[in-house]
Amino acid sequence: MLVNFEDLNKNSRIWIYQSNKEFTENEVEELAPIIEEFVSNWQRHGEDLKASYKVIYNHFIVLAVDEGFNNVSGCSIDASVNLIKNLEAKFSVNLTNKLNISFKNNNNINIVNMSDFQKYAKEGKITSNTIVFNNLVTTIEDLEQNWEIPADKSWHKRFLVQ
After folding, report:
1. Which stretches does DSSP call E strand in the chain?
2. What does the CA dihedral 133, 88, 86, 13 come to, rounded to 10 degrees?
3. H or E element: which one contains 116?
4. Domain range holding 143?
5. Could you tell me the pTM of the whole model?
6. Which of 137, 136, 111, 97 shows the shortest CA–CA distance to 21?
7. Least crowded by CB within 10 Å, which of 1, 15, 108, 160?
8. Same domain for 115 and 135?
9. Looking at the 3D structure of the chain, how many domains does it have?
10. Do residues 42 and 49 lie in contact, with contact meaning Cβ atoms separated by under 8 Å?
11. Are 63 and 77 within 8 A, CB to CB?
12. Do 72 and 43 reside in the same domain of the chain?
């Protein structure tokens, strides 16, 4: 059952998928009903999931489930991954490459592969104050508090020049 993202419990479980390219406004308008239809019908063994989604900065798709209502199962997670794979094919993007790292440069979102991120850190283009996206967060509360953080406060700090 689709609900407003803001109405979900802060402990709701999330999955973040970052695109290797920015979606255009038209693409966001095109993908929204696809995701909404999926989330509206998302179930665990025939039981509705209380769920929502959000597209952030036209780069990130966040799926969320209130597990206080119903827990997700392996099958329901697989179904969401299938949705993401279908979006990848439809929009010619990569949403599942965990080796891409995203960070802000002023207000621009940059997504680079891990080796380029390491290179930029060595060159001083990425510093401890660079805002990075910690896509490992697992709840809405984490998303709000620990997703956009300085590099030295995240797992990315291991790449920084000391």
Report:
1. 13-18, 43-44, 47-48, 51-56, 60-65, 100-105, 108-113, 131-133, 148-150
2. 0
3. helix 114-122
4. 100-159
5. 0.94
6. 111
7. 108
8. yes
9. 2
10. yes
11. no
12. yes
